[in-house]
Amino acid sequence: MPEGAVSASVSLDRLFELAEVLGSMMERGVAAHGLTRARAGLLWALFHDGPMTQRALAGQLGVTPRNVTGLIDALEADGLVARTPHPADRRATLVSLTESGRALTAGLREGRDELAVELFGDMPAAQLAAIYDGLETVITRLRTIDQASR
After folding, report:
1. What is the pLDDT of residues 62-83, one digit of tens each?
2. Of 3, 14, 92, 122, which has the fewest CB atoms closer than 10 Å, so is most exposed?
3. With 0-12 CB in 10 A as exposed, 13-18 as middle and 19+ as buried, what is 68?
4. Phi/psi class of residue 95: alpha, beta or left (left: φ > 0; alpha: ψ in -120 to 50)?
5. Phi, psi at residue 85, to the nearest 5°?
């Protein structure tokens, strides 16, 4: 391999390492708030997209409606989400963040924003753009490979 050249295998190894480090940090970060990654993901979806039905949440999170019910039950018991009747569909229930849920999720976002500044704050714009562009390409290709394998 020519000097400075990086192989596809080495690049993939670095992505695996990145996934492990980020995953570990996420686990510790959400655990510090008494959450699992699955529960935090549900809160995050509601934080970004607002109230939605349990079926919509299941689809967005890529889990079964039964799994969503369990997650919502636990989050509701902790006072982080609330279920209310759907205004237009009497068979459906809307799930939304409570004030405590919004505050917790906003705190998680602040932590994420602080990490972003720590990682990328002093990086030159061209380097940051190159990282972004490279990751966009990798994510698009991974989604294509994932869809083809289903």
Report:
1. 999 999 999 999 999 999 999 9
2. 3
3. buried
4. beta
5. -60, 140
